[in-house]
From TrEMBL:
MF-aspect GO terms: polyphosphate:AMP phosphotransferase activity
InterPro entries referenced in this protein's UniProt entry, alphabetically: P-loop_NTPase, PolyP_AMP_Tfrase, PPK2-related
Coiled coil feature spans: none
Residue span, Polyphosphate kinase-2-related domain: 13-218, 266-488
Protein name: Polyphosphate:AMP phosphotransferase
Alphabetized UniProt keyword annotations: Transferase
Cited Pfam families: PPK2
């Protein structure tokens, strides 16, 4: 794997000069072409032996290209906030927008490399880490982010020689980090770790490219050529997903609900509402809640009462604890990123609550029905969403998903009420009426969504909401029960 790089190939200045001239011109042209076409974002992942000039190579890329459109993303040890979030959170948050380039130091490969470099690496853990990385990169790739992975390598002798040369000159000694010096003592183990990590994480569509790094001129030329080839690469056509089987019955979850369910008396509602709000207030102020991020997702037909249910929840919360997010169509800036990007920006820390009024499920609902994405995109999204929620849960978050369902007749009644009410007239829009015309399409999309994304670990809670009070009590009771279970607390009998 590293045989050629460890021969330490070199270029003379006369050989390198015309190569550099051609590369600089070609890189700028390719960079601007991608910017003008609003093409894919490009992530250049930098990895390899310490002390082999990775930083110098990246500095040259910024010099040869227009640095205004490049983000150099250096990730060191995670901060306290980053440690409290899912592992991939900090990488999602700093993705470059479409057309631009990000150069990543300290990438998501760091845990994989650290485990591979142990004296006795845990092969099961290595396999799990590699699978997580492949899923992450596949999601980015399928959503418009191109990834090129560069591994910088050189021989043991060249690494030691370069380090000694830099240390000998006071003007360059600052470039040498403690880990650069340690490499010579652990070279063989680190070399084997690199080979193992590359084999486990290599993908035909995102292969590792080995950059010979002993000679600065050769290193610069190979780095520039790799980035240029990536910028010039046309996006591959994603594999077509199989069409839905013809004639397969559409689930009828929403059609089968009992929309007549209601609370018998107003007094029952007032009493239960007060009791549940009091219990919710106690739970979210308990010491154990400080370790728990809570994510509440609300979906449902227009006029199903999502806003009213959310207000009954927030009434019991400390305003400093929660963030309620009304999710509409992505704005122009948000459209420059993968569709899950904007949701990664708004995840709660432990002890905080994020309430999504509409959510990432828009991809398989409104975007599907209104044909704002392709069938391949929304079918693929089921798996991407399940993976996203799995990452949240694995990081300790409690994720609760609610669908408030209203009958077609009750929705029409509420639409007319809104039109006639000065207080509620702002809630009714032409879009609501357009959505109503596609009632059956939305019903099919929602039912299919339940089938693919209601998992044992993260089920949908589907409540009929023709009686808003009934739905509100069911939502509150579900949240209280889930919090008590997650915090291992129980209401005294």
């Amino acid at each position: 794997m590293f045989t050629i790089a460890e021969t330490d190939p070199a270029l003379t200045k006369d050989q390198a000069k015309p190569i550099e001239a051609r590369l600089r011109t070609a890189l700028l042209k390719a960079q601007y072409k991608r910017l003008q076409q609003n093409g894919r974002a490009l992530l250049v992942v930098i990895a390899g032996m310490d002390g082999c000039g990775k930083g110098a190579a990246v500095s040259l890329l910024n010099e040869w290209m227009d640095a205004r459109h490049i983000r150099t993303l250096a990730f060191g040890e995670p901060s306290a906030e980053e440690r409290a979030q899912p592992f991939f959170w900090r990488y999602w948050r700093r993705l470059p927008p479409r057309g631009r380039t990000g150069i990543v130091f300290g990438s998501w490969y760091k845990p994989l490399l650290a485990e591979a470099a142990r004296k006795s690496p845990n092969l099961r853990k290595l396999s799990a880490l590699a699978q997580e990385i492949r899923r992450f990169e596949e999601t980015l790739n399928d959503n418009g982010v191109q990834i090129v992975k560069l591994w910088f390598h050189l021989s043991r002798e060249a690494q030691a020689r370069r380090t000694d040369q830099l240390l000998a000159d006071p003007d360059t000694a600052w470039q040498v980090m403690p880990e650069d010096i340690k490499v010579r003592k652990k070279f063989d183990r680190l070399r084997k770790a690199g080979e193992l990590a590359i084999r486990l994480s290599n993908d035909p569509s995102r292969p590792w490219q080995i950059i010979p790094a002993a000679d600065p001129l050769m290193r610069a030329a190979c780095t520039g050529k790799a980035v240029l080839a990536a910028l010039r690469t046309a996006p591959a056509r994603p594999p077509a997903l199989p069409a839905a089987p013809g004639g397969a019955p559409v689930p009828t979850v929403l059609q089968d609900l009992d929309y007549s369910l209601s609370l018998p008396q107003s007094a029952d509602y007032d009493r239960e509402l007060a009791r549940l709000q009091a219990r919710l207030a106690q739970l979210t102020r308990h010491d154990k809640f400080r370790k728990l991020p809570l994510v509440l997702v609300f979906e449902g037909q227009d006029a199903a009462g999502k806003g009213g249910a959310i207000r009954r929840i927030t009434h019991a919360l400390d305003a400093r604890q929660f963030h309620a997010l009304p999710i509409g169509a992505p704005n122009q800036y948000e459209q420059a990123f993968p569709y899950l990007w904007r949701f990664w920006q708004n995840l709660p820390l432990p002890g905080a609550i994020a309430i999504f009024d509409r959510s990432w499920y828009g991809r398989v609902l409104v975007e599907r029905v209104e044909k704002l994405c392709t069938p391949a995109e929304w079918r693929r999204a089921y798996g991407e969403i399940n993976e996203f929620e799995s990452l949240l849960r694995d990081n300790g978050a409690l994720v609760l998903k609610f669908w408030l369902a209203v009958s077609k007749e009750k929705q029409l009644e509420r639409f007319h009420e809104r039109e006639q009410s000065p207080f509620k007239s702002f809630k009714i829009t032409p879009e609501d009426w357009r959505n109503r015309e596609k009632w059956d399409d939305y019903l099919d999309a929602a039912n299919e969504m339940f089938e693919h994304t209601s998992t044992d670990a993260c089920p949908w809670h589907i409540f009929p909401a023709d009686d808003k009070r009934y739905a509100r009590i069911k939502v509150l009771q579900t949240i209280v029960d889930a919090l008590e279970h997650a915090m291992k607390l129980r209401t005294a009998p």
